[in-house]
Design brief:
disordered N terminus; 9% strand; alpha/beta; seven-stranded parallel sheet; single chain
Length: 345
């Protein structure tokens, strides 16, 4: 007898019933919470990574922001200037260089905006923001860069700088604090005043977690032990990263490297940055608008466990003062720009 045919036809199914409304809403809510938690975790990881990077001190390969408002950039845009002068200015305008904050150019009420703009440019360029704070009372002991603020206004001004830097924590920030202030102090007889004023500035700036460097003179000024003693007397070394050498001078990088090590050894520790913006031909014993000099090693070229790195701190092409044919301190001097860049153009 033949086997009965198997009915392979599936039983018809009715349409699926939708999930209850409350269950659907609950599942959607859970999915949203999970997605939000994942986004927060990723954002937190990115933020911590950026913060960790910004908390690293300057080192080899550090690149400073190229500021659009530099004196070199303004000179390069001067259509009335001779071609050679504009070419020299244009070259220097493209080089990563520290920006000098002075109360004359960036006064109280405006300096915050300057730093905010520099921070925007640093983010766009993935670069480090470096400023030179240069406005303490009796600046330069009345020499070519004389000026500055009284102590009350200096506290206000540096306070605004500190708040602006604190507002840019996603950017690595370097502060070179008052070049020449300590190396000149014995000559001016004002180390106690300088200590008080610099302490005011460090109080205002240190909360931003910027890397601060005090004045460290240079290799043809004080002996390393003498400079170390001056720095030590301020009592500020343990509140800053270290000291800056050769700022606005011309000494060879190798000489400054050895000098920085000697000062740090005499201090029993500390770190340094070296200005190599005009060190290409070395010094010739002239500190003010020395002639026949050259730009030096680009920033971030060298460094070790003592010297964090080298930077361009003094903007090449800016005058040291009305000496050796130059204009007022800080003014653009086309002749100097042309001379300093003659080997690279």
């Amino acid at each position: 007898m033949p086997a009965p045919a198997v009915n392979r036809q599936r039983r018809a199914r009715g349409p699926r019933r939708p999930l209850p409304r409350r269950l659907a809403v609950a599942l959607l809510a859970i999915a949203g919470v999970v997605a939000l938690a994942a986004l927060i975790a990723v954002a937190t990881l990115i933020t911590r990574t950026v913060q960790t990077m910004m908390l690293q001190p300057p080192a080899v390969d550090t690149t400073l922001v190229v500021a659009s408002g530099s004196t070199a950039a303004r000179a390069a845009a001067d259509t009335g200037a001779p071609d050679e002068a504009r070419a020299a200015a244009a070259y220097l305008a493209e080089q990563p260089t520290a920006y000098w904050l002075t109360p004359e150019r960036d006064p109280i009420g405006e300096v915050w905006g300057r730093i905010a703009h520099l921070a925007v440019e640093a983010r766009e360029q993935d670069a480090t923001l470096a400023v030179v704070v240069y406005g303490l009372p009796g600046r330069d002991c009345g020499n070519f860069s004389a000026g500055g603020l009284d102590e009350a206004d200096y506290a206000t001004w540096t306070g605004e700088i500190g708040k602006a830097l604190d507002n840019a924590r996603d950017v690595q920030r370097i502060v070179v604090l008052e070049p020449d202030s300590l190396a000149l102090a014995p000559e001016c007889g004002n180390l106690a005043d300088r200590t008080r004023q610099l302490t005011t500035a460090v109080d205002a700036l240190s909360g931003s977690d910027a890397w601060i460097y005090l004045d460290g003179g240079h290799s043809t000024w004080h002996e390393p032990a003498t400079m170390a003693d001056i720095i030590a007397q301020t009592g500020l070394l343990d509140r800053v990263r270290g000291f800056a050498t050769n700022v606005s001078n011309y000494n060879h990088a190798a000489s400054e490297f050895d000098y920085a090590h000697a000062v740090a050894a005499a201090l029993g520790g500390g770190h340094a940055v070296i200005d190599t913006s005009r060190s290409g031909a070395g010094g010739n014993g002239v500190w003010c608008n020395a002639r026949d000099r050259l730009i030096g090693e680009p920033g971030g070229t060298f460094g070790d466990e003592v010297v964090d790195t080298n930077l361009w701190i003094k903007p090449p092409g800016e005058s040291d003062g009305p000496c050796n044919g130059g204009p007022a301190a800080g003014s653009w001097w086309p002749d100097a720009a042309i001379e300093l860049t003659r080997a690279v153009r």
